[in-house]
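Run folding on both entries below.
>entry_1
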Amino acid sequence: MDSHSYTKFIGNEVLQNNDLGEEFNAKVLLAFHGFGQSASVYKMLIELYPDIIIYSFDLFAHGESKWDTTNYNYSPEAFKQELHQLFEKEQIQCFDVIAFSIGCRLALATAAFFPERVNKLCLVAPDGIYENVWYHFATKNWLGNYLFRQFTKHEKWLYTTTKIFNKYRIVDEKLLKVAEKVVHFYSLKKVYTTWMLYRHFTFGTRKVFSDLFDANKHVWLVTSNNDEVILENKLRLKLEKLGVLSKIKVISFVVYHQRLLRHSLNSSELGSFFTENDC
């Protein structure tokens, strides 16, 4: 079975201490990007925080992570084994986790499987907290999945369908515009592969967060009022209903979905997440 590729980014301060043969307690970060991005999106962090080591993963169908079969049954357990191998190879005991959008499904999996190793968790516009009805229909419903597969073969059909949805206001207009941009810049096959491979990455959010809180670990949430994909109000309501929102450090910006990660990484508001090292 194929496995995720990752890139290791090492800050200059870590490199200098290694060259001198001095012991240095570097901060370790596991990072997962969103759709249409690659592991390199997190490289900028080593310029801002030179005492950090980042293991940045490419999602399947992105960067160097390939998925060459027509079998889309990738399981969370398989991902757990990949992490085990990484921890043994790199001798990683404790780390922080940051993720964006659909990459948050892997971040939640990491926290669910290894709560004792996770120091802090930061979710930026997280997919996987609440499930979008169209994502569920396209990946877990027989009819929806069949139609989705047909769209990958006849992408022009999608334009016709979105016009109908827009005319009768079946789907929010902002979300339709995002869908049109995705089809313009990427292939629907890429969308299909990504969505299908991570469809089983669903975890009990309350338990994942509670396990971290019980161990005095911190959870950060980054949202945006202008996010047209992961709706801020819906996300907050879900977390409030689960009884965990009051324990989460929430940061809100006013940018569109695809710009939110870079904006967050450059922000001073998220600075303490990267500078505090409690491992």
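>entry_2
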Amino acid sequence: MWKIDRDEYIILLTSAFDQFVDDFIAWTLDNQQIKLEELQLRIRDGNCRITKLAQRATKVRDYLCKFCSNSELNTVASMYYYYTSTYHVLPATGINNYSLIQETQELIHDAFGYFYDQLIDTIAFHNIYIHNYSGLPELKQEFRKYVGDKHPVCPYCDYSEIDIPRFSSIDHFFPKGRYALLSIYSNNLVLACAGCNDRIKGEHVTIPIFHPYFYNPDDYFYLSLDHEYETIEFIAKNDEYKVWVENFNNSFKLEELYNKRIRAVHSETGDLRGKVRRAFRNYKKTPLQGLKRRFETDGELIEFLLMNHIRYAIHKNKQLRGKEPLRKLKIDFYEQMLNIYFEKEKEYLLNIVS
């Protein structure tokens, strides 16, 4: 539910994927429809990054040759450049599919599946495309570990922790099963929890929807609680983004998840009330110097203590956004208590301490 800011190291790692695909497509366009024997010679004698990699990775060499001889290579290249150059708007507009023959679709799926599943984890790829790489042997594991350390809570549900790699999953925002050309595109790889990616979202994406690299979903909706703090509803802050909010909610079954976690709100309510009551009793025992005249009644004192504790809770939870689970829920809960349910809460506390 929070926008993810990628630092220089993650950009370094994932930009290597983009550079590789750019090199791959550029080389095939420069050498298309050339006879197989000549292609193999050019790969063997080549001194650019892609040919150096192909010299060490047989499958890269084979796929270079297959793409060079493919009759729809120019269309494939146009697709890739269209997808990547307009990617930032695709979560709003969706992707226009190109018509390709079955053979070409299978070639793309096989090649880019290999690039993601195997190639980017090889030493050959690291040595050629990432200078002085010293991370984990498997690059996908390095991505999961590093991003999980920086952003330890799932950006979709804000509930599951992803700082341990075996509990995280690399989501292809536009699913690789349907958009294979984006299988290793940097902007399409989002670290999420296994629940959101593998068990819920899977191979589906409904447009328009918030992408955590380009949008901060928190800006567009709030979690609304009923006056008894028993149910939670996702509400768009602006009608313009109502469909976006619905799609985001439905894609990850968030309203269902949060209503099962309503205990977190009850726990916050109990903690807040306990802190206000203790502060009230302490003040009554030893009034703060210079403040006694400000509180002529218990109601004034409760109002002062409750407001300050709520404001502090909002501030504290905002500092922990993306670092600890359920911060969106807790922030929205306290803001509603401050702006909507304050008098109700004040009356409840006053009845207890009176």
